[in-house]
Design a protein that fits this description.
275 residues, mainly alpha, two-stranded parallel sheet, 2 strands, 68% helix, transmembrane, transmembrane helix, endopeptidase activity, CAAX prenyl protease 2/Lysostaphin resistance protein A-like domain-containing protein, membrane
């Protein structure tokens, strides 16, 4: 039997949460210090990626032809030599993990440990189950939205991987999925929303800022990629605001990317028409 969701239940998820702030709103010198910190963190991580995404989209729009006629690869070979290639792949993974670690460290220095932002003890049943559920909630409609955006010429053709058929390809793709997930959910959700709360921003405003940031650094894929990730950011950010748990978001994001990366790589090896 289908369960009917009441208006009250639906409204409770749409409305912003009203959590007790982790720390009193900053004032004066503390506010300036927080803005400087946020600016530096974003300039060395996803803020710069967002600016790069805007430039990539502009370049694609200036290229003659439809956006769908152009292609962008998410994971590419980084050297002709296999050993150098896998080493550079691993360096990229380490860099993303370091971005996430930077956010956690700065929060810890201000008195907020991993448990305070939802990375406490991992609970297999609720965290894993909810993570997979979120992956399905975002991934399946997201695929349909991508196909629609590409069909109407609002998105580039996204190729999940162009890495050669090496023995280390699948492990590398999974590591990329985990690193992407950890860095994005820690920095774009837990770190940014927490800092904006401390600056006195409302839950809705901080949620929107987080979602827009997520969308901008995906604009290299086209308008569809940008808007789709804004929607993902709204769902993920609100979930974190309501539950305070970050593990399900990490699991969901890693699952979505792993299915896309590894599934594409597997199909590419068995279906001739896949590029």
């Amino acid at each position: 039997m289908c369960r009917v969701i009441s208006r009250a239940t639906l409204a409770s998820w749409i409305r912003p949460a009203s959590p007790e702030p982790a720390a009193p709103p900053a004032t004066g010198t503390e506010r300036r210090a927080l803005w400087i910190e946020i600016t530096i963190v974003l300039l060395v991580t996803f803020g710069t990626s967002g600016l790069s995404g805007l430039l990539s989209l502009s370049e694609s729009l200036l290229t003659p032809g439809n956006l769908a006629d152009q292609a962008v690869a998410l994971n590419v070979s980084r050297a002709e030599n296999q050993i150098i290639d896998v080493a550079r792949q691993l360096l990229g993974v380490v860099k993303l993990l370091a971005w996430g670690a930077l956010g956690l460290y700065l929060l810890w220095r201000s008195g907020l440990g991993p448990r305070d932002v939802g990375l406490g003890r991992f609970r297999w049943r609720p965290d894993g189950t909810q993570g997979v559920g979120l992956a399905a909630l975002i991934g399946l409609p997201g695929l349909g939205f991508y196909l629609l955006a590409r069909a109407i010429g609002a998105n580039l053709t996204v190729v999940p991987s162009t890495i050669g058929d090496h023995w280390w390809r699948l492990p590398a793709l999974i590591l990329w999925a985990i690193a992407n997930s950890g860095a994005e959910e820690v920095l774009v959700v837990a770190y940014l929303i927490t800092r904006l709360r401390q600056l006195g921003w409302s839950e809705n405003s901080s949620l929107l800022a987080s979602a827009v940031l997520r969308g901008t650094y995906h604009l290299y894929q086209g308008f569809g990629g940008g808007l789709g990730n804004v929607a993902m950011g709204l769902v993920f950010g609100r979930y974190w605001q309501k539950t305070g748990r970050l593990w399900p978001l990490v699991i969901a994001h890693a699952t979505i990317d792993s299915v896309a990366f590894v599934g594409y790589a597997a199909l590419r090896g068995h279906v001739g028409w896949i590029p």
